[in-house]
Amino acid sequence: MTNRTGSNGRSGRPVGGAPVGWFNGQPISHPSEKPVDIEDPFDPEAMRVPFDNPEEGLLEAARCYVEEYITMGYTDSMLFQMFRKPFYMGLHPVYKMKGSDYVHDFIGERREKLAEAGVYPRRRSTPQRGE
Questions:
Q1: 16, 105, 110, 121 - which has most CB atoms within 10 Å?
Q2: What phi and psi values does residue 14 have, to the nearest 5 degrees?
Q3: Residue 131 CA: distances (Å) to CA of 47, 56, 125, 126, 128
Q4: Distances in Å between the alpha carbon of 121 and those of 69, 80, 91, 115, 128?
Q5: What are the domain boundaries of the chain?
Q6: Which of 13-17, 19-23, 114-118 has the lowest mean pLDDT?
Q7: CA distances from 109 to 28, 97, 115, 116 (A)
Q8: Is the dihedral of CA 105, 102, 93, 47 positive or negative?
Q9: pLDDT greater than 90 at residue 108
């Protein structure tokens, strides 16, 4: 039985699967359940970035990943574990190539560079009492 919201009357879930969230009392379905649009402008496209030295390109990609994760609040320990796991194809080759000591220094260096630039740690957007 389906009601006007397009959900199962007993569970309140949208027809076709569990909701991933709710907006204004209406269930939001997962994007994978959305019909494919032939003219979708958000198709991912891989691009090569030219580097004379492939190792330099790999380290630059790792720098970008690490800086992004640091600003998202990841700890050094969390980042190091990501380097150790083959699932993270942008980080793991650096671990295999350079070793654990290099990776620890690499993470610390990125954190210092972000601190020098004033990006990390994040500053509060609202002043606290007495500031």
A1: 110
A2: -65, 150
A3: 46, 44, 12, 10, 6
A4: 12, 19, 23, 6, 16
A5: 54-117
A6: 13-17
A7: 42, 18, 10, 11
A8: positive
A9: yes
pTM higher than the cut 0.70: no
**Unique residue bearing structure tokens 């494919």:** 36
**Could you give the CA distance from residue 111 to residue 109 in angstroms, rounded to a whole number?**
5
Is pLDDT of 101 > 70?
yes
Predicted confidence at residue 38, as pLDDT, reads 75
Q: Which residue has the tokens 């496209």?
A: 45
Task: Say which amino acid occupies 23.
Answer: F
Give the pLDDT score at 62: 95
The three-state DSSP-derived secondary structure of the chain is CECCCCEECCCCCECCCCCCEEECCEEECCHHHCCCCCCCCCCCCCCCCCCCCHHHHHHHHHHHHHHHHHHCCCCHHHHHHHHHCCCCCCCHHHHHHHCHHHHHHHHHHHHHHHHHHCCCCCCCCCCCCCC
Among 7-16, 58-67, 106-115, the minimum mean pLDDT is found in 7-16
